Amino acid sequence: MMQDPNAPQSDLESRKHPMRVVLSLPNLRLLWIGETFSVLGSQFYMIALPWLVLKLSGDPFQMGTVLALAGIPRALFMLVSGTFIDRFSPKIVLIASNTVRLVIVAILTVLVIYGWIHIWILYALALGFGFADAFLYPAQSAIIPHIVEDRHLLAANSIIQGTAQLSIAAGPALAGVLIALFSGSPEAATPSGENAGTQGIAAAFGCNAIGFVLSIIMFTMIRINKAPAEESENIDVLSAISFFKQGMSYVLKDKTMRLLLLVTSVSHFLVEGPLLVGIPVMANSRFPEGVASFGIIMSGLGAGMLLGILAAGFLPSVRPERMGTLLMLVLSSSGLGVMFMGFMPDTWSTAFIVMLMGAAQGYVVIQFNTWIQIRTPNVLLGRVISTMGFASVGLVPISQALCGALIKISVEGLFLGAGICLTIINLLVALRPEMRAMGLQMKSGKKVAA
User: Fold this and answer.
1) What pTM was estimated for this model as a whole?
2) CA pair distance 171, 133, nearest whole angstrom
3) What integer pLDDT is reported at residue 449 of this predicted model?
4) 4 in helix, strand or coil?
5) Any alpha helices (H) in 315-410, and if so which ranges?
């Protein structure tokens, strides 16, 4: 296990609550602050981009295809992003990813302000944003074990992810209100940008750019532990292909990780498409608050995930023999939320359902991430996390494009079908012996790299 030189060593400090211990680490605090700025800024982008597509085209299918196009490079390059993280440094990858995203949102801000924006430009910039995004999540997760001891990982993950979810809870609502305040006329903007209603969208992109600047400053100040010399030498002699295969092989040889790949892929396919396509369509056509409704509902998802993450950090640990089954039962409850979502009559009832779904997902995700970090050697961690991350985004572009077409047939049918499938699949996985043994495996600690 890699030791953190900043970690408290005295007996007195060892008796502190893990939350207090990790917050005493300067590197963890820098990551915490930088992550907050990065995630908060991103929420403005996540609300502004689909709303801009709807205002330009009025077509849910085009909105789904723009989102899907961003998801394709995110999925493909996330699969190999761990190779770069393990070869270089998660810190370097974090800074590079945020820099590329900063350039893209700055360009968007200028184009929207001057009315030079067109759908084809959104396709191109979404493609670039998705590429940069592919490297972000694996680097965020891989850097934590470099600055925090294994025994404090759950507390560190809860703080980082909890604050990120707080940003996700606040960001969409702030973005929706900002766009509504500055947009003026509610009429759709034309592709030539003649309608001043897009100026609120430009303001949202501008806020996103500021968030990225602040996050880059924080990340540059982080100092992380380097891999031991023997690990670094091993990395140097491996080709890029074999280096990537080593991480993939590690995941595929572990029965429980293979099952988590399946669960993650199916859950994101059946949830993200309906949410990211269905909610803006409902806000635009059904709810009187318009873009503010879109932001409020997505903030409900972030608030729920925050509650789930905090629960994972503060509630007593689940008994190891029950951990896997319990997590799958909790995750199954989010399927019930998807079923009802399409039938909700107003913004606030929809936001409440989404919040409950988020709470279930947040509690499960933080447990899954901690399990992966503890079970994986640090030298493989970037590649393993990127492989698991690919499972979360690989099928999402297909889901978004498909939902963009299906929602024209029936909003209610889209959510009902997705929710039923999600609930059934998760309940079946809960019965698998690999899932029942998940908590017992976590007690054995890190494996040795093959």
Assistant:
1) 0.72
2) 18
3) 52
4) coil
5) 320-341, 347-375, 378-393, 396-406
Q: Are 313 and 366 in contact (CB under 8 A)?
A: yes
91 pLDDT more than 60? yes
Rounded CA gap, 41 and 214, in Å?
10
DSSP 6: T
**Residue 314: is its pLDDT beyond 70?**
yes
56-73 pLDDT, tens digit each: 888 888 888 888 888 888
Comparing C-alpha atoms, which of 322, 251, 278 is closest to residue 418?
A: 278
Q: What is the DSSP letter of 196?
A: G
CA distance 293 to 290: 5
Q: How does pLDDT run across 124-135, given as a tens digit for each residue?
A: 999 999 888 888
Q: For the chain, which domains are there?
A: 17-220+240-443 (1.20.1250.20)
Nearest 10 degrees: Cα torsion 220, 225, 227, 228 = 150
Which pLDDT score is estimated for 351?
93
What is the Cα gyration radius of the chain? 21
Residues 67 and 84: beta-carbon distance below 8 Å: no
Structure tokens at 409: 């047939």
Cα 447 to Cα 450: distance, rounded to the nearest angstrom: 9
Distance CA 450, CA 442 (A): 18
Who contacts 36 (Cβ-Cβ below 8 Å, separation ≥6)?
163, 164, 166, 167, 215
Q: Tokens at residue 118, please?
A: 């067109």
Contact present, 280 and 296 (Cβ < 8 Å): no
Distance between CA atoms of 237 and 255, rounded to whole angstroms? 29
